[in-house]
Design goal:
Elements lengths: L7 H4 L20 H15 L3 H14 L4 H13 L3 H14 L1 H4 L3 H10 L3 H11 L7 H23 L10 E2 L9 E7 L5 E7 L5 E9 L2 E2 L3 E2 L10 E6 L5 E6 L10 E8 L2 E2 L3 E2 L10 E6 L5 E6 L9 E6 L10 E2 L10 E6 L5 E6 L9 E6 L10 E2 L13 E3 L5 E6 L9 E6 L9 E10 L9 E6 L4 E7 L5 E7 L3 E7 L6 E6 L8 E3 L2 E3 L7 E3 L16 H14 L4 E6 L7 H21 L7 E5 L12 H7 L2 E7 L1
Parallel strand pairs: 23-29, 23-30, 32-33
Antiparallel strand pairs: 1-22, 2-3, 3-4, 4-5, 4-6, 7-8, 8-9, 9-10, 9-11, 12-13, 13-14, 14-15, 16-17, 17-18, 18-19, 20-21, 21-22, 23-26, 24-25, 24-27, 27-28, 31-34, 32-34
Helix pairs in contact: 2-3, 3-4, 4-5, 5-7, 7-8, 8-9
Length: 640
Amino acid sequence: MIKPIKYVVLIFALSASGFCFSQVYYPEQVKAKAVKLYEKALDQLKDGAITEAIPVLMESIGEDTNFVDAYLSLGGALGQLKRYDQAVKLYEKARSKDSAYFLIYHLPYSINLAGQGKFEEALKAINAFETYPKLNDRSIKSAQYRKQCYAFAIRYALQHADTKYDFLPVNLGDSINTIHSEYYPSVTVTDSLLVYTRKDPRGREDFIESRINKTQFGQWKKIEGDINRETNKGALSVSQDGEWMVFAGDISTQGHRSFDIYISYLTPEGWSEPQNMGPNINTDFYESGPTLSPDKRALYFISTQPGGYGGSDLYVSYRQPNGKWGPSVNMGPDINSASDEQAPFIHADNQTLYYTSNGLPGYGGSDLFVLRKGINGEWGKPENLGYPINTIENEGSLAVSSDGLTAYYASDRSDSRGNLDLYKFNLRTDIRPYRTLYVKGKVMDKKTNKPLPSSVELIDNTSNTALMKLQTDEIGEYFITLPTGKDYTFSVNRKGYLFYNELYALSRQEADSVYRKDIYLQPVELNTVSTFNNIRFATNASLLPASAYIELDKLLQVLSENPSLQLEISGHTDNIGHAEDNQKLSVNRAKAIVDYLVGKGIGIQRLSYKGYGAAKPVADNSTEAGRAQNRRTTFTITGL
């Protein structure tokens, strides 16, 4: 009997022997010339020359249009090239010739149907495949796995039936892609720099960059500096501010064993010599796929170290106040599976993480998933990105622009320049990250204008938790992302200075804007007066609002760092209402703050309070804006 290339069927070692075929197709009656061409094509397919074998198989079918095995092998070859629509037609042609002979080919037929997104038809085909009477154990397991994938796809489609989405990937073009493989894209928070990895036929991997001007990508060039010196490297990620580069590599002079994670810093001469990120991150096992949070306080990566839940798991390490990286922590069984997790990417919002997994429920192979951080700071459950972003093939790394609209990924689609190319596409609305604003500026001494390296925090007013923390550079400059849709407090601390707090009411602000905010810190000096920006009492009330605790906790820190410091807490009102009522209200508001501080352990002898009513306005009470400024609570340094 003629033995066709059975595509996936061969992989699962299915045998057709012993099956009673119908009498429609007679392999022994195939014309000799067609058989000769067919056998030539088989040799080509065995050598991996798929594209060369396809025209030979077509010629074989031309010689004998009843040659079922040639149809099947051609369908298998086209399926391997992801030309699913053509493959399905050939399988159906073969089935029309002899449905009984075709029965065992329902498995590869189902896979090609699923490749087209026809999951219900694929499920019917796999059910037909399971009726074959002599399936071996491996084939049974393969059928069960495919059934799970198709059933998942059908459920996902039903759950997202109202979602309208056109998946239209666009090749990034010749300024980015070449005949070699390009992969692992990463973008800065301002979407001004794209970096990625390129692999040549010799196996050398180089890091490439392209400057982005709106939607135009500049001509690629190799990244300058020592970072490209080593040949054996791979996953690459740039920090959101474009100042740090983290990557995986096998550098024999520094590594523990196998691939480790390294860091390089941008200097005037280019990227610095890579530094191993140390034993809290790297082990004797495989580490790769690093991605830095926008505040550069968290490093997410994958590792095969023992103690995980599968092959490679997602881990996170947090940078300590001294600049060292803390021990890595497995991200847990809800995020990691019994198989492999790969290619994490943390977005500029610091709350949305994308990665791949081949162990979580999906379409087959490695799928892309999204994780979102909840209000308590804990990560939620992974969500599959769905078809057609995910397919029956293995999906690779994904990077998302700061505005959350555009995703970049690597694929070997039909219009690739060769092997893997980089593409972009519009991300579906429900799987986008949060929109962000960007604030940059400098922290300086209020009296001398001297730059001050300082600690900067972005606090979520709803949960009173720090969403981001960063340290300004040596000249006091900072760059921070502010996810929209919420209200935040921007807090700056430095020992010897009063804290700085400012409320950012962003819940109704437009995204994708860049603001400059230079911050001047007041030295701790006698008679210095400072206003609480976050303490806004309700009308005629002295109960501390929820937003007050963010600012009061910062004041507690100042008091703890300066144990001899003494303060007067002062309450002020506008001139609306009776003067006596305003006086009493201002006293009660000041007292409420003192009571809170005393309750947190500050000695009462260090604190006093006084109400001034409307006696000390700082603005014109004839306007609402002026009255709002006058309704304030302040503190004055009365002793050092």
